[in-house]
């Protein structure tokens, strides 16, 4: 990283060997301390890295650890629903997989992508101590996402016809549609949750969300068992409980924001300013959505292509189990993705180029090591992991056969999501969207289709080709991040905050 060794203003060292910040130290003081250490040429290189690493690891894990818990628990909501559905029968498992990955990820990717605009703006504004801006960004984003939920609802209503049009079997499409109908309330829960989530994360307020999500998971498991098995609502009951659980998370988090002292400067109440600049804010949100949608839809297409294979039920069952495992472990990388975005955006907003570059190195290295370790665990347990989802031996053998590709996916997921978090923290969404189009849709999908259908490699061929696209994208992002001039990024951040500033000072309560 250029800015770690070169550039930046030299500041004399006033630090002792103990890098632990005092308990009364403010976030800005901690960030400035890190920048001072990285800029101090009087300290030996090893000592400088040692002190900087100690501070950065504390800052990083303060966000990453509870973020991993939040995303992991939230994914357990989805995975437990998949498990409840799977034990109803193989058709129900295939339907839940198709409904979740084939339809539900459409809204998830779109709304989460639009919400990442809040992540960029709130993170940089908080780093620059422009706290009054965060609440307005939250409200603007929620309004736009709720409006976006209306056309998505129409897609959900006609999901059966859409799936059949895409070539899915009538039986699986009909069952999947029943599951999808129960997910309609979840659309608007996503629309409220993602801006709230990014608003809190940008301030490194993550632990409360972890507690809320964990408590909700317990309620979710109990209600799922009652509605699916005891009352007998089946797939519809499973998806309705999933929607309710997301709304519990949304309402509880918003109550925390309103009541917490930690948000008193960033949430000052509802304001008319939330309705200003909506067209321009939509453009920014749309570019963010394109970046993330191209990623989430990529694996959605993997499932849809698999549904076109011979014996699609077996292929979907085995692939859905692998995708569920991937998604679960992926939540660790997503937690580090959130931490990378927060750390980079905060440091850029605070005007600390060296700290931003150093944060990227640390978070990428740690996430990669975790990815490699988990890939090894999956290979050791390859013959047993499927039995958590189904008792079928045929499906278990198919899952075992896919596990080498699963391991490679986990290794790539140790790097790629973190680099995407860096991109969001910097506001590179448009550039990454272009890279995603080329790597995913020009290389990955055609290559996967050729291997899967032309050469008859089936699900393994489709997945292998699409992994090639992911690998190319990861290499490009690594190179671009390595070549980044972080001082230039600081200047871009200042211009962005000036463009998106809240007019007339702090937001007025209504």
How is this structure best described in words?
Helices cover 79% and strands 0% of the residues. It has helices at 2-5, 27-39, 45-86, 90-127, 132-157, 159-165, 170-181, 184-201, 207-230, 234-259, 278-306, 312-349, 353-380, 393-413, 416-426, 429-454, 458-482, 486-499. It has one domain. The protein has 510 residues and is mainly alpha-helical. α11 (278-306) packs antiparallel against α17. It is a multi-pass membrane protein. InterPro entries: MATE_euk (IPR045069), MATE_fam (IPR002528). Keywords: Membrane, Transmembrane, Transmembrane helix.
Average pLDDT, all residues: 84
Based on CA atoms alone, the radius of gyration comes out at 23 Å
Distance between the termini: 46 Å
Query: What is the string of helix and strand elements?
Result: HHHHHHHHHHHHHHHHHH
Number of domains: 1
Q: Shape from CA axes?
A: globular
Oligomer: single chain
Low-confidence blocks of residues: 3-24, 504-510
The helicity comes to over 70%
Largest sheet: none
| Number of beta strands | 0
What is the SS-derived class?
A: mainly alpha
Strand content: under 5%
- Count of helix runs: 18
Please give a handful of descriptors for the protein shown:
510 residues; mainly alpha; globular; MATE_fam; transmembrane helix; MATE_euk; xenobiotic transmembrane transporter activity
Task: Furnish the topology, listing elements before pairings.
Layout lengths: L1 H4 L21 H13 L5 H42 L3 H38 L4 H26 L1 H7 L4 H12 L2 H18 L5 H24 L3 H26 L18 H29 L5 H38 L3 H28 L12 H21 L2 H11 L2 H26 L3 H25 L3 H14 L11
Helix pairs in contact: 2-3, 3-4, 3-9, 3-10, 3-12, 3-13, 4-5, 4-7, 4-8, 4-11, 4-12, 5-8, 6-7, 7-10, 8-10, 9-10, 11-16, 11-17, 12-13, 12-14, 12-15, 13-14, 13-18, 14-17, 15-17, 16-17
């Amino acid at each position: 990283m250029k800015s770690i060794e070169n550039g930046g203003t030299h500041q004399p060292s006033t630090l002792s060997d103990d890098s632990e910040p005092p308990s009364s130290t403010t976030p800005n003081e901690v960030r400035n301390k890190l920048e001072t250490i990285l800029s101090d040429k009087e300290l030996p290189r090893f000592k400088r890295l040692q002190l900087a690493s100690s501070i950065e690891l504390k800052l990083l894990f303060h966000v990453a650890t509870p973020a991993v818990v939040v995303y992991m628990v939230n994914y357990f909501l989805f995975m437990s629903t998949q498990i409840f559905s799977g034990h109803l029968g193989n058709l129900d498992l295939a339907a839940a997989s198709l409904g979740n990955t084939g339809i539900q990820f459409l809204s998830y990717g779109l709304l989460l992508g639009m919400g990442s605009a809040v992540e960029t703006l709130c993170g940089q504004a908080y780093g620059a101590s422009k706290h009054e801006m965060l609440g307005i960004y939250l409200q603007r984003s929620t309004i736009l996402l709720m409006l976006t939920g209306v056309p998505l609802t129409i897609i959900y209503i006609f999901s059966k016809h859409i799936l059949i049009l895409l070539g899915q079997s009538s039986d699986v499409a009909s069952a999947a549609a029943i599951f999808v109908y129960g997910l309609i309330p979840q659309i608007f829960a996503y629309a409220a949750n993602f801006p709230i989530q990014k608003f809190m994360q940008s301030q490194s307020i993550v632990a409360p969300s972890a507690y809320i999500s964990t408590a909700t998971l317990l309620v979710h498991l109990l209600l799922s068992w009652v509605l699916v098995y005891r009352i007998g609502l089946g797939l519809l009951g499973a998806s309705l409980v999933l929607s309710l659980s997301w709304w519990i998370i949304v309402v509880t988090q918003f109550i925390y924001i309103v009541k917490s002292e930690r948000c008193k400067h960033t949430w000052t109440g509802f304001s008319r300013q939330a309705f200003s600049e909506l067209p321009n804010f939509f453009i920014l949100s749309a570019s963010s959505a394109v970046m993330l949608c191209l990623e989430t839809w990529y694996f959605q297409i993997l499932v849809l292509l698999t549904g076109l294979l011979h014996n699609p039920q077996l292929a979907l069952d085995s692939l859905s189990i692998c995708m569920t495992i991937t998604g679960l472990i992926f939540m660790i990388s997503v937690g580090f993705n959130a931490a990378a975005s927060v750390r980079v955006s905060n440091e850029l907003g605070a005007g600390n180029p060296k700290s931003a570059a150093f944060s990227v190195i640390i978070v990428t290295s740690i996430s990669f090591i975790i990815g490699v370790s988990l890939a090894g665990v999956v290979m050791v347990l390859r013959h047993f992991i499927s039995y958590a989802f189904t008792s079928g031996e045929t499906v278990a053998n198919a899952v075992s056969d896919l596990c080498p590709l699963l391991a490679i996916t986990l290794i790539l997921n140790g790097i790629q999501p973190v680099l995407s978090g860096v991109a969001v923290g910097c506001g590179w969404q448009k550039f990454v969207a272009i890279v995603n189009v080329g790597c995913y849709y020009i290389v990955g999908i055609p290559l996967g289709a050729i291997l899967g259908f032309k050469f008859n490699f089936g699900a393994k061929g489709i997945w292998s080709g699409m992994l090639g696209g992911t690998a190319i994208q990861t290499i490009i992002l690594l190179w671009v991040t390595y070549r980044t001039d972080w001082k230039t990024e600081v200047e871009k951040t200042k211009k962005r905050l000036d463009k998106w500033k809240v007019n007339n000072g702090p937001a007025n309560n209504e």
